[in-house]
Design brief:
Layout (H helix, E strand, L loop, with lengths): L1 E4 L5 H11 L2 E5 L2 E5 L15 E5 L19 E3 L2 E3 L5 E7 L6 H14 L3 E3 L17 H14 L2 E6 L5 H7 L2 E4 L7 H8 L5 E4 L6 H12 L6 E5 L15 H10 L4 E3 L1 H5 L5 H9 L5 E5 L17 H17 L3 E2 L1
Parallel strand pairs: 7-8, 7-14, 7-15, 8-9, 9-10, 10-11, 11-12, 12-13, 13-14
Antiparallel strand pairs: 1-3, 1-4, 2-3, 5-6
Helix pairs in contact: 2-3, 5-6, 9-10
Length: about 325
């Protein structure tokens, strides 16, 4: 249950009431809000005189629910505004990993050429094998920050674990919580304590309920700027890397108030299928796309098979506008 307290309720009283009901206390719109477990279906007697409005929930998907906020949240990703009634589909692109200044500069210049506003690249890589390239770490973050300063791009990179969350928050504009880290409450709670946008990727064995509840950790910490990212789930199929769950995307659009970005690159796992899959995603009228690009994918140090070369990306990008227009959206 979500309980909006009356405007005259003081911070001290809100905290006292929160302790009594084992609630999380938030301050928003000049008033305090209590969020209790969804098992609570009636406002307790001791809260009645302080309650302005209450919302009863079927599950602990609460702040993210359209029962609470019926329209999609507006979230600013650099110069791109998504959500709400904007009908914008933001393009995010860049390599799987920062590998060198020359490589990331080429990717930044591709963004400028096409008008892409958000550059992505990994610096701390949560690889399956300990013998694979693990990323450039802090040096990679500094290179991304240099791209922002030089080209005016917003930058996004992934948090691998809680040991470097502070560095990622400092150097980037958007924090990506990866599929392997979305259960890490240390990361989620740190993200809840800031106001920068947080993109949470769905784990490949994660239910929709678990996925959305990860966002609740950030929202209940006081950060309303959360974006969900579907990137494929593990099924019985072995011919593609994962299976992109567009049925799940339809569910998220219907029942949550969070913008939704799709990542066809990680779902497909192979460059040949990414263009068609991306167009299918765009046709769903989603809020964003995340596509991996590299100057020369054959020599990429991670995820070489799924990264598009620049000409492939140019062709894909130019094909998206009519698809987006057909469903009342525009690529930004």
């Amino acid at each position: 249950m979500i309980i909006h307290l009356k405007n005259e309720t003081s911070k001290e009283k809100a905290n006292e009431l929160g302790v009594q009901s084992q609630s999380i206390v938030l301050h928003q719109n000049n008033a305090y809000v209590l969020i209790t477990p969804s098992s609570l279906k009636e406002v307790p007697d001791y809260l009645q005189s302080y309650t302005e409005q209450s919302f009863y929930m079927d599950s602990d998907m609460q702040l993210s629910s359209k029962k609470y906020m019926p329209t999609t949240r507006n979230i600013q990703l650099g110069d791109a505004l998504i959500g709400g009634s904007t009908k914008n589909t933001v393009m995010i692109t860049g390599p799987c990993s920062v590998e060198s200044e020359e490589q990331i500069t080429a990717c930044a210049e591709l963004c400028i050429e096409l008008g892409v506003k958000v550059l992505r690249a990994g610096c701390y890589k949560p690889r399956t094998s300990p013998y694979s390239f693990q990323g450039m770490g802090l040096e990679g973050l500094q290179l991304l920050a240099r791209m922002r300063e030089k080209y005016g791009l917003a930058v996004i990179t992934e948090v691998r674990d809680a040991t470097h969350i502070d560095e990622v928050i400092e150097y980037t504009d958007i924090i990506q919580v990866g599929a392997k880290a979305m259960y890490d409450q240390g990361i989620l709670r740190k993200c809840g304590a800031i106001q920068k946008p947080v993109l949470i990727k769905r784990g490949f064995g994660t239910t929709l309920q678990e996925f959305v509840q990860a966002s609740e950790f950030v929202l209940s910490g006081g950060n309303p700027n959360v974006v969900l990212c579907e990137r494929g789930i593990r099924t019985f199929e072995t011919k593609t890397r994962f299976t992109l769950d567009l049925c799940g995307v339809a569910y998220l659009k219907e029942y949550t108030n969070l913008p939704i970005i799709l990542d066809p690159s990680h779902a497909m796992g192979y460059a040949y299928g990414i263009a068609d899959l991306t167009r299918a995603c765009t046709a769903m009228g989603i809020d964003g796309l995340l596509i991996e690009t590299h100057p020369n994918p054959k020599v990429a140090k991670s995820d070489a098979a799924q990264q598009l070369n620049f000409e492939e990306f140019r062709n894909l990008y130019r094909s998206l506008e009519p698809v987006a227009k057909a469903v009342g959206h525009q690529i930004v």
